[in-house]
Amino acid sequence: MYRRPLVMGNWKLNGSQQMVTKLITELRTTLSGIQNCSVAIAPPMVYLAQARDQLVGGSGNISLAAQNVDVNLKGAFTGEIAVSMLKEIGVEYVIIGHSERRTYHHENDEVIAEKFAVLKSVGLIPVLCIGESQAENEAGQTETVCKRQLDTVLETLGVKAFENAVIAYEPVWAIGTGQSATPQQAQKTHKFIRDYIAQQDAQVAEKIIIQYGGSVNANNSAELFKQPDIDGALVGGASLEADKFIDIVKAAENAQQYQ
Ligand code: PEP
Hints:
Elements: E1 6-10, H1 17-31, E2 38-42, H2 48-55, E3 62-66, H3 83-89, E4 93-96, H4 99-104, H5 109-122, E5 125-130, H6 134-138, H7 142-157, E6 166-169, H8 183-198, H9 202-207, E7 209-213, H10 221-224, E8 232-235, H11 242-254
Parallel strand pairs: 1-2, 1-8, 2-3, 3-4, 4-5, 5-6, 6-7, 7-8
Bound molecules: phosphoenolpyruvate.
């Protein structure tokens, strides 16, 4: 089954207007010929409009992603951003369930499932991050944790909600540590995730994009992208430097399994 890989840069709390201009200019120039891979960037919210203005109407197929969204549609929710606002500004993908939001903002599986639902209701594509902590990994609970994090969405919205959605498997111990999962470790969990969804709907499972995230860089991406159930990457640190991000996109572009 052919799946078009997705390489997405999560800029987190980094950037400036100047940096947005520079990075997007470099990405657009170098990535204009990319054919086998979808590319997206998730700058901080305040730079989305600037990024959109730079991305539209030119060469280079780079989509816009947001790093968060509120579950409420409008009203007295100071500091929040609604799905309609993201849609209006040209966002396509929204990252939800990132371990940093689970940890620092105490988002639980229920809130994340609500976010998944509001995104689907307006046609935005959720990028649902799941993955185990170091302690859970050491206790052999990787699959149990991933299953639990998927179950809340599956139980409240049903498996069809995963049509036109993305899952990012991001072992928490690999995020920002320089210690990526090995391609074999990642593949094992990606296969588990796909098989688990296939138990409910084989077609949805075959089509769904499952990105790997956690210290992906120019050196390890090619091997990760050789794995049959790894469909691109969610990239943090290495997405802040054009050269590094471009190398990862090129590794996906050239990976045999994506041709
Ligand atoms: C992330 O935060 O989603 C991530 C994968 O970060 P890094 O690439 O820096 O590990």
